[in-house]
């Protein structure tokens, strides 16, 4: 038994990464850091679903180029998105001649892909693994909420699905390694409000972080940053309070990808960004670059996902959530 | 923490909508739409002199303007501030139908536009007709004793 925390004996490395985003994300505070963006959010395609697929294709292509490898250089692809049956990934990556596994972890998919990829490499089952994750505001709105031009008002706790994708190539070379990972448990605290996903996801994030600190010798101050995927403003506040009540204080070094990607006031994004492209693009463009530059040396990244769909919400069910953790460390 | 105490905690913690500001915006923008409607009524009455034609023309003009602004991507931006001010008037209904039609065009005219056009407005029509029918029955029964 690993007691919930997987320690990789052969530490997998992140060889390269690539991010692409839409125009709103480009306008945000991290705008200059993303590798690629599309002004009209369509990425040259006619439907929003194809646009999301195109983001995945572009992100993987860029990451492979950055790592200097071709199709045959990857043993396996792990990819996921928010669309029904993961079509964003399967349609976007169908031209690549690489064994493919579709993942669904909702907005935790980026962390899930990194953790699974690390397992495959550390276990000697693969030498190089590609992980890709995306979400698109327009395709998600259509699937989960209202038509794009519908005139409704969002409550302050609502989050904004990020148009973005991030791809990572894992292997045996690279400055940043993944020494540990935690696969989360499903946690449902009875929240039914789809406009307060942060509150639905925070308890699962608490569980995962608690497991990590209980089973390792580390404490929060050992890390330069503890970054969650997309808890947004509400979820981040709840996370910090609940952890504090358990004796774990992460107030000093916690941040959230959903709070970093937009200028909350100027861009009117309410509680912040969400979607699996949120953490994928922020970790790729911002956190990994800082790790590679040694501005950060040890980071805990916890991807947070809400595991409902539009039918379960209409049927009045509460929202189960999951959080997966990966530790990102720079070799100095 | 159990589920119900967590739910109470989250409710207390959640940032509240700025109700006073929302109401003021809804009043001003909703009022502006109604004022426009009334101005159109006076204009059409002056031009046609016919009450029935005037009512139809006012509705048609407001629906046209709403659909036009929806198509241009402006209506939802106004509505994000106006809230009920843009949902309650007839323009809100027109926006609900046209936005769904535009959004589902990628699935074709039959399976997309035709099938999903009333995905938001549909319940309003269904329950509007149902309550109309119930009202009709009540009206008929009371008229028997009148």
Describe the structure.
The complex is a heterodimer of chains A (332) and B (146). Chain A has 2 domains: 5-171, Peroxisomal Thiolase, Chain A, domain 1 (3-Layer(aba) Sandwich), CATH 3.40.47; 178-330, Peroxisomal Thiolase, Chain A, domain 1 (3-Layer(aba) Sandwich), CATH 3.40.47. In chain A, α6 packs parallel to α7. In chain A, the strands form 2 sheets. In chain A, strands 1, 2, 3, 4, 5, 6, 8, 9, 10, 11, 12, 14 and 15 form a 13-stranded mixed β-sheet that branches. In chain A, strands 7-13 form a two-stranded parallel ribbon. Chain A is 34% helix and 22% strand. Chain A has 332 residues and is an alpha/beta fold. The longest helix of chain A has 20 residues, at 48-67. The model of chain A has no long low-confidence stretch (mean pLDDT 95). Chain B is 82% helix and 0% strand. Chain B has 146 residues and is mainly alpha-helical. Chain B has helices at 3-13, 19-48, 51-71, 75-82, 84-87, 90-103, 109-116, 122-145. Chain B is extended and about 65 Å long. Chain A binds chain B through residues 46-49, 142, 146-157, 189-191, 196, 199, 203, 233-234, 237-238, 242, 268, 271, and chain B through 1, 3-4, 6-7, 9-10, 13-18, 22, 70-71, 73, 75-76, 78-83, 86-87, 92, 95-96, 98-100, 102-104, 106, 119-120.
Show unreliable segments of chain A. none
Roughly what is the average pLDDT of chain A, rounded to an integer? Answer: 95
List the secondary-structure elements of chain A in sequence, H or E.
EEHEHEHEHEHEEEEHEHEHEHEHE
How large is the count of helical segments of chain B? 8
Secondary-structure blueprint:
The complex is a heterodimer of chains A (332) and B (146).
Chain A: E1 5-7, E2 13-21, H1 23-27, E3 36-37, H2 48-67, E4 76-80, H3 87-92, E5 100-103, H4 109-122, E6 129-135, H5 137-144, E7 160-161, E8 164-171, E9 176-177, E10 180-182, H6 197-215, E11 225-228, H7 232-245, E12 254-256, H8 257-260, E13 273-274, H9 276-292, E14 298-306, H10 310-314, E15 321-330
Parallel strand pairs in A: 2-3, 4-5, 4-6, 7-13, 11-12, 11-14
Antiparallel strand pairs in A: 1-10, 2-8, 2-9, 6-8, 9-15, 10-15, 14-15
Helix pairs in contact in A: 6-7
Chain B: H1 3-13, H2 19-48, H3 51-71, H4 75-82, H5 84-87, H6 90-103, H7 109-116, H8 122-145
Helix pairs in contact in B: 2-3, 3-6, 6-7
């Amino acid at each position: 038994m690993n007691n919930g925390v997987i320690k990789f004996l052969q530490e997998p490395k992140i060889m390269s990464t690539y991010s692409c985003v839409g125009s709103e994300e480009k306008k945000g505070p991290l705008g200059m850091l993303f590798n690629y963006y599309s002004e009209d959010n369509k990425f040259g395609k006619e439907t929003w679903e194809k646009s999301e697929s195109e983001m995945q294709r572009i992100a993987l292509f860029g990451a492979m180029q950055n790592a200097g490898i071709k199709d045959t250089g990857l043993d396996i692809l792990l990819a996921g998105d928010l669309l029904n049956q993961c079509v964003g990934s399967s349609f976007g990556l169908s031209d690549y001649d690489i064994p493919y596994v579709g993942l669904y972890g909702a907005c935790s998919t980026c962390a899930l892909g990194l953790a699974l990829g690390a397992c495959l490499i550390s276990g000697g089952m693969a030498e190089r693994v590609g992980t890709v994750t995306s979400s698109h505001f327009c395709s998600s709105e259509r699937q989960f909420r209202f038509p794009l031009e519908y005139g409704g008002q969002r409550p302050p706790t609502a989050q904004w699905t990020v148009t973005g994708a991030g791809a990572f190539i894992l292997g045996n070379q690279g400055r940043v390694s993944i020494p540990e990972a935690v696969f989360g448990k499903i946690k449902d605290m009875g929240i039914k409000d789809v406009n307060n996903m942060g509150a639905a996801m925070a308890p699962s994030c608490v569980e995962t972080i608690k497991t990590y600190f209980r089973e390792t010798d580390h404490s929060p101050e050992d890390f330069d940053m503890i970054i969650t995927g997309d808890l947004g403003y509400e979820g981040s506040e709840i996370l910090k309070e609940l952890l504090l009540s358990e004796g774990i204080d992460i107030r000093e070094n916690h941040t959230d990808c959903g709070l970093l990607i937009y200028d909350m006031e100027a861009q009117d994004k309410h509680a912040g960004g969400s979607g699996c492209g949120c953490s994928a693009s922020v970790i790729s463009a911002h956190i990994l670059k800082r790790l590679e530059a040694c501005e950060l040396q040890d980071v805990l990244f916890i991807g947070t996902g809400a595991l409902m769909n539009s039918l379960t919400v209409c049927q009045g069910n509460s929202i189960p959530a999951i959080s997966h953790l990966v530790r990102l460390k720079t070799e100095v | 923490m159990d589920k119900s105490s967590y739910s109470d905690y989250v409710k207390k913690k959640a940032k509240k909508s700025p109700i006073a500001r929302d109401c003021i915006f809804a009043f001003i923008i909703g009022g502006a739409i109604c004022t426009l409607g009334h101005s159109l009524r006076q204009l059409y009455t002056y031009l046609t002199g016919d009450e029935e034609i005037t009512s139809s023309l006012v509705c048609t003009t407001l629906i046209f303007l709403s659909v036009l602004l929806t198509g241009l991507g402006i209506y939802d931006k106004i509505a994000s501030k106006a809230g009920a001010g843009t949902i309650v008037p007839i323009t809100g209904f027109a926006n609900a139908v046209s936005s769904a039609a535009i959004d589902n065009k990628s699935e074709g005219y039959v399976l997309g536009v035709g099938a999903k056009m009333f995905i938001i407005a549909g319940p309003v029509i269904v329950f509007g007709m149902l309550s109309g029918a119930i009202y009709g029955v009540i009206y008929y029964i009371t008229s028997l004793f009148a």
